[in-house]
Amino acid sequence: TCDAVTPNVTIIGTCTFSATGTSSISGICLQTNSANCVVVSGANACEVRLINCFIRATNNTAIAYTNSNGASLFYIYFCRGDITTTGIAYFANTATGKFKIWNSSFLNEGSSTTASSVAASGGLDIINSQFFNDITYASANTANIHLSDITNFTTSGVGVFSIINSLSGILTTAGTGTAGIAINCTFSGATSSAISVGSGTT
Prior knowledge:
Distance between the termini: 45 Å
Largest sheet: 9 strands, parallel
Shape: globular
Strand content: over 45%
Structural class: mainly beta
Order of helices and strands: HEEEEEEEEEEEEEEEEEEEEEEEEEE
C-alpha cells in the first residue's frame, strides 16, 4: 500500500480497459500526462477497481468513465489523490454503469474550480470519503453521498440524491423533477446561499 504514496511505482500515462471482465490496480500512483490516467471505455461489461492507489491529476482530468454497458462498474477503494493545477477535475463520467468512491480522500491543492461530472444514467456513490472538488450531477439515477465531505454538489438531473451525515459547501438543484433528501448534514455557502433550489425542482 505504501508504494502508492511514496511513490515507488508511478504510471505516467493512460491505463485503458474496455474488455469484458474485471481488472484491478492496487498500490500504484497513477498520474496524468496531458491525457486521462484511467479510461474505462467500450461497450463490454467491465469492472474496474482501484485499490490503495494515489491519483495525481497534474495536467488533465484524471478519470474518463465512458463505458456504455449498464452492467459495468467502477470502484475506487481506499485511494488518495490530488489535483495540482486549475482547469481539471478528478473524473468525467458519461457511463451507464455505477461509479463508487469508498473510504478515499481527494485533495485539490491546485484550487481547480472545474467540477467532476456525472452525465449519464449510471449513478454515483461516495461513502466515507473526502472529495475537495465540485461535483455536477446530471444523471437520472441515484446519487448517494454518505459520511463524506464534498466541496459543492450541483444536480440538474431528474434522479434522486441522498446526502446523509455529510458536510458540503453549496447544494444546488437546477433540474426539473429532482427529488432529494439530506439528513444530519451541514451546508456552508460562505458569502453565497448554502442551499439553492431551482424553480422547476420538486
